[in-house]
Specification:
The protein is built from 15 helices and 14 strands. With 428 residues, the protein is of the alpha/beta class. Strand 13, helix 12 and strand 14 form a beta-alpha-beta unit. Helix 3 crosses helix 4, helix 7 crosses helix 8 and helix 8 packs parallel to helix 9.
Length: 428
């Protein structure tokens, strides 16, 4: 590592650069077909912007290397141009290789790492070039860490009350980086500037394939969400997308927010990401408050597979949800997982027709994959399908363009990809 001469603890006002790691070299998977990953759609890094909102007394630079399409070399060059005293990287496990390259080739007095990758693999990151690692919510502990002299080590943050911390410092982002060009391949039109918002963190559900690590659910109040809606609207957004893992898990909160929004002067297209909703009045509240789209994890239409996934819903719940959305003209973007144990050829053949019958507007297909730190992956390890913990091996020594090993044969993988391509053609 390259270190500055002056000790950071003697600085009264450190210069801070916070970075989202670039896509270059990230893990290669078979989860999502490229059709569903249009390059025009980008999301500003709310985690780093929330962190920055708690660091107002310092000079903070944000580099969103992934949204801007920077290479690792370009990211390193831009970091060094900002001459940071503190370099902070937000890392997902898929981009651990880029993390190691940036830690090894940048100039900063102190380098720190946070983000989802640290939850499971913090034990390796100090040896890979970080001076400090932050696990969990860091808005409060990171600011305190700076004031206490930036000591090395691993720091664990607890879930933070989202109503007591500042709203994300979106003004630190260049909005032009997130503007959407109208082009072929966009699944729907939400205008030029669709900005994300988190109204909650975490998901208490225990789906076996999911790598959402925070299981304690913490949420903003309806009043706080409305305040943030106003902030985003004032930035010139054409649409707001609530990116929660389970927006509607507390129905009273949803109803209360929708009532507040209806009575307010806020008038903007908006959408949510949530779970299958069986209460018609919740869907009605969303539609009445101007919600345009509901992104929902249906995942499967076979009750046996849903049970295997440990989903709380069954087909009759899905049918009730779709009926309500169609009744209230709420567009459904529904996510499905293909390739589960017990999934039959007949199911795959009939799925497109069933989706049409349910009135789903946009189906989005993924392939079941053993993601890091998921129960599905650990079960495959326990069953001897994989002979080693390959995710741990990767985290300890990240490789560029690492390909996730498959638990299927080559033929089975090809069959799944062909199936999904046929679905894409069917629904175009």
């Amino acid at each position: 590592m390259i270190k500055r001469d002056r000790p950071l603890g003697n600085l009264k006002s450190p210069r801070i650069t916070l970075v989202v790691c670039p896509y270059e070299g990230e893990v290669i998977d078979r989860v999502t077909h490229n059709f569903y990953k249009p390059s025009a759609v980008k999301y500003m890094p709310l985690g780093l912007l929330s962190l920055a909102a708690n660091l107002r007394e310092y000079e903070v630079n944000i580099i969103d290397a992934s949204s801007r399409g920077l290479t690792v070399a370009e990211t390193i060059e831009e970091i060094n141009e900002t001459e940071p005293d503190i370099l902070g990287l937000s890392v997902v496990t898929y981009r651990a290789w880029a993390m190691t390259q940036i830690l090894s080739n940048t100039e900063a007095s102190v380098k720190v790492v946070g983000g989802p990758h640290t939850t499971k693999y913090h034990k390796y990151i100090l040896d890979q070039g970080a001076d400090a690692v932050f696990v969990g919510d860091s808005e409060i502990i990171f600011s305190d860490w700076i004031k206490n002299g930036c000591r090395p080590g691993i720091y664990f943050g607890q879930p933070t009350d989202l109503n007591t911390i500042p709203l994300p410092a979106r003004e630190l982002s260049n909005l032009d980086d997130y503007k959407i060009e109208k082009r072929e391949g966009l699944l729907f039109d939400a205008g030029e500037l669709r900005l994300p918002l988190f109204s909650s963190k975490g998901c208490p559900l225990r789906c076996n394939y999911c790598d959402v690590q925070q299981k304690k659910y913490i949420a903003k109040s309806p009043q706080r969400i409305l305040e943030e809606f106003k902030q985003v609207e004032e930035l010139g957004a054409t649409s707001i997308h609530i990116l929660d893992d389970a927006f509607n898990i507390r129905r009273d909160r949803v109803r209360s927010f929708c009532k507040l929004l209806e009575k307010s002067e806020v008038s903007i297209d908006w959408s949510v990401r949530g779970i299958v909703e069986v209460h018609d009045d919740v869907i009605e509240s969303l539609a009445s408050a101007g919600c345009s789209r509901f992104h929902v994890g249906i995942e499967h239409l076979d009750d046996g597979v849903l049970e295997f996934f440990r989903k709380s819903q069954r087909l009759n719940h899905v049918e009730k949800f779709c009926e309500s959305c169609n009744k209230h003209d709420l567009m459904m973007i529904a996510y499905f997982i293909m390739g589960a144990p017990g999934e039959t050829t007949e199911y795959r053949e009939k799925l497109p027709e069933k989706i049409r019958d349910l009135g789903i507007d946009i189906p989005y297909f993924n392939v079941l994959t053993p993601l890091s730190d998921t129960d599905f992956y650990y079960q495959l390890l326990s069953d001897g399908v994989f002979k080693e913990d390959f995710w741990d091996a990767f985290a300890s020594n990240p490789a560029k363009d690492y390909v996730i090993p498959s638990h299927r044969s080559v033929g089975e993988e090809e069959e799944l990809q062909d199936c999904i391509e046929s679905y894409i053609d069917y629904f175009k």
